[in-house]
Design brief:
3 copies of one chain form a homotrimer. With 385 residues, chain A is an alpha+beta fold. Chain A folds into 2 domains: 69 residues, atp-gated p2x4 ion channel (Helix Hairpins, Orthogonal Bundle); 269 residues, atp-gated p2x4 ion channel domain (atp-gated p2x4 ion channel fold, Sandwich), CATH 2.60.490.10. In chain A, strands 3, 7, 8, 9, 10, 11, 15, 16, 17 and 18 form a 10-stranded mixed β-sheet that branches. In chain A, strands 4, 12, 13 and 14 form a 4-stranded antiparallel β-sheet that branches. In chain A, helix 2 packs antiparallel against helix 8. The longest helix of chain A has 28 residues. Chain A starts with 11 loop residues before the first helix and ends with a helix. Chains in contact: A-B, A-C, B-C. The interface between A and B is large, with 84 and 70 residues. Strand 1 of chain A pairs antiparallel with strand 2 of chain C. Chains A, B, C: GO terms for molecular function: ATP binding; extracellularly ATP-gated monoatomic cation channel activity; purinergic nucleotide receptor activity. Chains A, B, C: It holds the Pfam family P2X_receptor. Chains A, B, C: This is P2X purinoceptor. Chains A, B, C: Belongs to the P2X receptor family.
Chain lengths: 385, 385, 385
């Protein structure tokens, strides 16, 4: 602080003297005057509070939470998958090409476990299904308004012709429609492919990259021998053999395979790369977890299914086989967080720690004033010097 | 601070005395000596500054920004979609299997609204299209260099045979090429499927998981009755009925449906899960927004389209129907941020707040020295005790 | 601090006097008493330490690390891709529809560069391949156990009939199986499509959105002329022309094209949007990088391939052409970080800076006590007032 002159005389000389004074004062060193309170009880309280704060920072902030690290979440990730295995329905053998959709081996794919096939559909006219609402079957008495020609029911299968025709099974009648005929609900046949499905193997090649730290790693062993031909994943002994049996995945997700194979469902394979990059790269390992992702208990629209078709030309006219496929969709989800020592968070946390230890002094002042016999010890000492 | 001994005598006794002194001094309590300036004006300024800083921290940092929370962005997310509805072109009825690509019900899918069909393509020779550059039609006088056999134009349709043949329409001639014939531009027929498309319904099942807080939630109502059969999404009354009409999505994104259906485009359905996990789970709700994602005003390559084909064998030779599909691609994008009370950010922010209130004292000193009648009040009081 | 009354008399008057005293004391201003140490050497050390800390904060924390900004990582992103070009195998011309899978133009797609075709497969019986283990061919002497009828080898091609039949080539015999026949390994023919593939062009339309800052940008030039028809990407001169040659991408990723086209592989095109939103939007530019993503040196399961089929009906029975496709999968990965000035990090960092400069004083005290001739200068001055 500039030493204030009591009576500044006017003129250049005074200004110069002031400047010189300021300059000189700038190089002075100031330190607060302190009072030393020679009270052992107070000292113990003071140091204990400081110790607690110090412990909190050293143990929790620095060791547990690793607050001295800069961190990055959401690594760049690439996933390649490959399913192997064959299965049987009642009539035929199914190979990977048929039951895995889409075939490209990306991070999301479905393994079909049950199908409802409607073969030989072609564009023509046929009986519409009766209006069906899952959960509450409405048995409608067909009235005139149901036969209006040219009407299009958004949840139906085609354009109404205006006629009334017998239904596929039973003696009732329904509206006739123009569209892909026969309609799915009237003519489909169910086939179960899931018998051998628990033994399908799924290879999940995943490599991640943390751009901030220029760190890359993959989840696969680099071994010359035929290790990857025979191994299956095990959390401890075969962590770097990312070959999973479908049954294992479903079991780890806590689901019943047969039930899941009938209704379909989505299972997430979550790969977690939590890495402390201050340690060696070999300490940065993937952690796999498995969880069912679709809502299981929603009565309407539970499970997972989709429709696809194969188109044929027979004698010049187009025919298709419509397939409603129930399956187990596997979503490979990769996330993670990497941390590495960095100056800024370290300094911010250190400064916070030091400030907080200073808070200890503030707390002590408050304790002193409130609980201690302050008149005897404190105020006596405070003004005695 | 260790009380410094004036003249430390040599020898063990002195060292011991010093150590004892240090130890004793360690348990002393120190507090800065303060000067009390009994000036009401200065006190008001001082307390006002402190109050302002306190208000800023309590209101903005802690209440508005929730800086006492630890946060996590980018939840693990799983999306299952299902489109329902049928539509008409001039000649036929189209169902979901035909107009949704890919069919698996993932987070990105296209609803085809217009197609250009090139039927009965087979491998053979035919006339190449004339070199066409959108925006600047080049009317080339065909020269000899255009007929070089074996040449391959990367943007053309095949390998040049070296002959010159009449074009599909009109009297002009073009190069002949070997490839899938006839070529698309010469023989394709346009069909519009978008008439009923605004009434298609899209069910979006989304479940998220914040791994740091072990919190999961879905966007769908768990109700036993047939609620999900009849409802459509409404931001207030039906937030947990994620069934959207395609027309609603396009309208919310601020686009004209007919125009979009002709050129194709990409619409993002953004689901935002911003959750304060200190509150109950029922306060953590999805927020939907809709935005066009592809660049609308880029003259070249605007809109969205892709090509796929259906392959047939007719009398042993392969024929295909090439389809250039314009459509509305829906990208379901899920993001979010969750926050929950945590000690570290709370303490860092508290320490910062306390430090900043201390800064109030510093500011006051500065005001005092600069503006107040310091000689009379301050320096008088400062050194009087 | 409340001025403590030495002997508080009982009664209301005393309480009132105490309250009045407290109220009065609340508006007092307190400032620590300081000692001015007029030592030039110490002052220089003190100011230098402060200067160093100040420089660190101004330069590193505020200028380099931009700690005054609030940041957001992981923008919402949408990617549309379009591949153009035709190529030749020995027998035929291939267009985009045939070699790009899936066709929808999303952020992950494969360009097929080599195929192994198994034409005319139908459900029937044929010879199984001999058990093959890549890397270590096992020449098994077929025993009785290999012919058990009804056995299903998960890595084989069908259900064993129990018979022993001659293999496709050579004189050896293998088990007979029921399945899609003939099996792939016995009857497939290889075709190489990659000759012209380096010249394929890939258009990558990407638009991003930072929801926290309401900032959107695309990677494509908005120009009216035919610029996008002719340009190819160049990091400096054509940054906003996102049209890449496949050969350029592979070269930038440091791979050999021919080798990659034979074995298949995954190349990541990483688009990085690091934006300082305090500057103008034109300073926020995409940065492209290219990297091979699949593990290259894993002996088993290296490269990238997948299987798909085309189904035909010939004379009422189903036939398929199975295609094992090796290709270059392109993963467009978008990430980025945006920062914008925000009060909270600024204040936290400022408070940390001020605290740290205060630490300078603490350091000086320590230097003073340890190294300086403290008895002469310091303790003399400390207690002199």
């Amino acid at each position: 602080m500039a030493a204030a002159e009591p009576k500044p005389p006017a003129g250049v000389a005074a200004a110069r003297r002031l400047a010189r004074g300021c300059w000189s004062a700038f190089w002075d060193y100031e330190t607060p005057k302190v009072i030393v309170v020679k009270n052992r009880r107070l000292g113990v309280v003071y140091r204990s509070v400081q110790l607690l704060i110090l412990l909190y920072f050293v143990w929790y902030v620095f060791i547990v939470q690793k607050s001295y690290q800069d961190s990055e979440t959401g690594p760049e990730s690439s996933v390649i998958t490959k399913v192997k295995g064959i299965t049987l329905s009642e009539h035929k053998v199914w190979d990977v090409e048929e039951y895995v959709k889409p075939p490209e081996g990306g991070s999301v794919f479905s393994i079909i476990t049950r199908i409802e096939v409607t073969p030989f559909q072609s564009l023509g006219t046929c009986a519409e299904v009766r209006p069906k609402y899952e959960g509450q079957q409405r048995h409608l008495q067909l009235g005139d308004e149901d036969f209006v020609a040219g009407q299009l029911d958004m949840l139906g299968n085609g354009l109404r012709t205006g006629r009334c025709v017998p239904y596929y099974h039973g003696s009732s009648k329904t509206c006739e429609v123009t569209g892909w005929c026969p309609v799915e609900d009237g003519a489909s046949v169910s086939q179960f492919l899931g018998k051998m499905a628990p033994n399908f193997t799924i290879l999940v090649k995943n490599s991640i990259h943390y751009p901030k730290f220029q760190f890359s790693k993959g989840n696969i062993e680099h071994r010359k021998d035929g290790y990857l031909k025979h191994c299956t994943f095990h959390e401890v002994s075969d962590l770097y053999c990312p070959i999973f049996k479908l049954g294992y995945i479903v079991e780890q997700a806590g689901e019943n395979f047969t039930e899941l194979a009938h209704t379909g469902g989505v299972i997430g394979v979550i790969i977690n790369w939590d890495c402390d990059l201050d340690l060696s790269a070999s300490k940065c390992n993937p952690k796999y977890s498995f969880r069912r992702l679709d809502p299981k208990h929603v009565p309407a629209s539970s499970g997972y299914n989709f429709r696809f078709a194969k188109y044929y030309k027979i004698n010049g006219s187009t025919t298709r086989t419509l397939i409603k496929a129930y399956g187990i969709r596997i979503d490979i989800i990769v996330h993670g967080q990497a941390g590495k020592f960095s100056l800024i968070p370290t300094i911010i946390n250190l400064a916070t720690a030091l400030t907080s230890i200073g808070v200890g002094s503030f707390l002590c002042d408050w304790i002193l004033l409130t609980f201690m016999n302050k008149n005897k010890v404190y105020s006596h000492k405070k003004f005695d010097k």
